[in-house]
Amino acid sequence: MTLSLDLTAEGARAMPRSLAAEEKPSLIGLSRAEMAEALVAAGVVPERQAKMRVQQLWHWLYVRGVSEFSQMFNISKDLRAALAEHFAIARPEIVEEQISTDGTRKWLFRFPPRGAGRPVEIETVYIPEEGRGTLCISSQVGCTLTCSFCHTGTQKLVRNLTAEEILAQLLTARDRLGDFPDRDTPAGAIVPAEGRKISNIVMMGMGEPLYNFEAVKTALLIASDGDGLALSKRRITLSTSGVVPEIYRTGEEIGVMLAISLHATNDDLRDLLVPINKKYPLKDLIEACRAYPGLSNAKRITFEYVMLKDVNDSIEDAKGLIKLLKGVPAKINLIPFNPWPGTNYQCSDWDTIEKFADFINNAGYASPIRTPRGRDILAACGQLKSDSERMRRVDRLALEAMMIAGHGEA
Ligand code: SAH
Ligand code: SF4
Hints:
ten-stranded mixed β-sheet
């Protein structure tokens, strides 16, 4: 059974005011220095107090997870009012929350247009497992790249998400799972038995995170800030189709775990499947992987490999994969292809996937086959009310399938 909560009517009234209604700049997604500058520039805080106020606000926003200034009890009433007059900290509108029988949750969030002409909607998926809970986050609405097996690739880029919107996915998911102090986890929720409800995040939702580098960097540095959200960088994985110059920058400036959407082991095939390969061919990609800082057996790069029938699933391909990754500390994630209407590809037969996995295992690589999660909410999403602002149903199905199948191993 699927539980689907439509929060547009009743529930939404109980939620913090929607960002769509807010025109004030948000404090979420600003670095400490930017926040200090904004507070002083607005005349809300004198310069000499800025550092101390930023510390206070940081704690309320990212440790306590409050979404209204009125809840910041150790800040004077006058200052809270001044902050509320100039700045926003509200959560985005939750258009819908769906919960699968296996505990997978999916939120449809709505953000203001910010130049895109109309409000945008994106999905965020939560996957609970034994001992960990993974949140799959989007970085763009649509994608400029055109990987031929990916449905997002057939959609135009609507716009980049801001650092605030990237973080808002994490903050709102933590609200809904009771993953902040003083919050209750909803009755019956499937979450890890101990520890944090969201212990890992993967940038594997919609979009190419390295084509939105600055916003992704800002958001991930805030997510991993030890005095705030405090997620270890070892538990954050960024997935890229292979934007080579930004892979170097990711290693130097962000330092999170890396996943590469590889999908082919020779340039001819990868040019077809992942066309950014024409710009950054395999040799350059693997060189960037080898140079990724801090790699060891305990800190490996994940290579994602979608299993496409008669395209990239032969034992020759498996051999090519082993040869290509020689000497790179690597994990291989085999992802059964999720078909979408209009695609020419098919998922490899189960037998073939198992043989491929066995070959790779025998060569000494862990190669889990990603089992699909939350199948029932994929089916159920056809039950969403139609709305001109919503993504087309086929787009949503493909995105959900991708997020759930592609989630990482971090
Ligand atoms: N744009 C980034 C991150 C998002 S894609 C990237 O390409 O890495 C997350 C993963 O899902 C990627 O490995 C992507 O190649 C894979 N994927 C895309 N479409 C898929 C499909 N139809 N079936 C299975 N996996 C898919
Ligand atoms: Fe974009 Fe990733 Fe899809 Fe390629 S696989 S089109 S990079 S979202």
